[in-house]
Amino acid sequence: MTTAPRLEIRQISRSFDGRRVVDDVSLSIQPGQVTCLLGPSGCGKSTTLRIIAGVERQDSGEVLVDGQLISDGVHAVPPEGRGIGLMFQDFALFPHLSVMGNVAFGLSDKSKARARVEELLARVGMSRHIDRFPHELSGGEQQRVALARALAPRPHIMLMDEPFSGLDDRLRDDIRDETLAVLKAEETAVLLVTHEPGEAMRMADEIALMRDGRIVQRGAPYHIYNAPADRAAAAFFSDINVIPGKVQGALTETPFGQFLAPGVPDGTEVDIVIRPQHLKIDFDRHGRGPNPTPQDGTPARAVVERARFMGSESLVEFRMDFDGSALKALVPSVFLPKVGTPLWLMIRRDRCFVFPRAS
Ligand SMILES: Nc1ncnc2c1ncn2[C@@H]1O[C@H](COP(=O)(O)OP(=O)(O)OP(=O)(O)O)[C@@H](O)[C@H]1O
User: Fold this and answer.
1) What is the structure's pLDDT at 108?
2) Does the beta carbon of 40 sit less than 6 angstroms from any atom of ligand 1?
3) 328 with 230, same domain?
4) Interior angle at CA 81, CA 77 and CA 83, nearest 5
5) Do 11 and 77 share a structural domain?
6) Which domain holds residue 296?
7) ipTM
8) What residues pair up with 304 in beta bridges, in sequence order?
9) Does the Cβ of 42 fall within 6 Å of ligand 1?
């Protein structure tokens, strides 16, 4: 038996001043699943979230909760009737209410409120602060209380818009992990908006990558990172190297030998994309490089233009002998070559992506 997704949106669109900022967006989320809506600033993430929450209306498309239609652009269940919890970056606590008062705020059955508040505060590690007021708490503590408050009415769905962006890095990692544990334990379906790929990869069961109002790719973090839909999708997650080529007879010529481009018509310009951590470096042996292996392919000589120590890694920038193009490699930081050193580069062919060049 298949059960309806906890949250489903179908072909949602919304325009402002004649510009489509949400364009035919569909998504579905199961109980206990975290989906991250990831994309650059202004791509339409928050508008999508606001439509689901019911504080913005769509021009077309449907929102369903547990298979029930709650909004189709004409009829809409009001925000408070949707069973949806919200947690936004600027969702401040009520300053005049204690932690207890804040977390109990959305609970209608006051006789059971104390037990529920205590349960949630224990879960977010805030039990001993139950009688404090917001101004007596640190930013991270306030965020935990905000999470407890959002979860108190047992929402089936939680919408989170950059909820951790006000926190410093270390605290943010801890609170993210705690939040995730609590949301999973409560079987809440979560849609989290972020523009940070690191946050999405850390939090998400599924990432929906959004650009110019559209979802350009959906999948598990591992899949999106390792099989990006296009060059921009690859570039969103890390620095990339782009080796340009032109296809002749299903092959393209590069400094690293020929690359297969099956099914690509002759004359098509392509970009071969590789992340800097997938370049290998080897020493120059009096003008000769390492012996090629089938996986690494042909090595190519290059000269170090810049090398930066970055803690656990070094970022080394090269100028290729073949055509003067520039490439970057991320290598363990025990290796920090001097500027001007000739070295040999190899690229992990199984980690390269070949995309037709975008015009
Ligand atoms: N009420 C509105 N009236 C006019 N334009 C709007 C309105 N709300 C949003 N927009 C525009 O729609 C586009 C998408 O905005 P949205 O807030 O959804 O993007 P976002 O991806 O969440 O960005 P950010 O990460 O910066 O919050 C932006 O160009 C924004 O200026």
Assistant:
1) 83
2) no
3) no
4) 120
5) yes
6) 238-356
7) 0.94
8) 318
9) yes
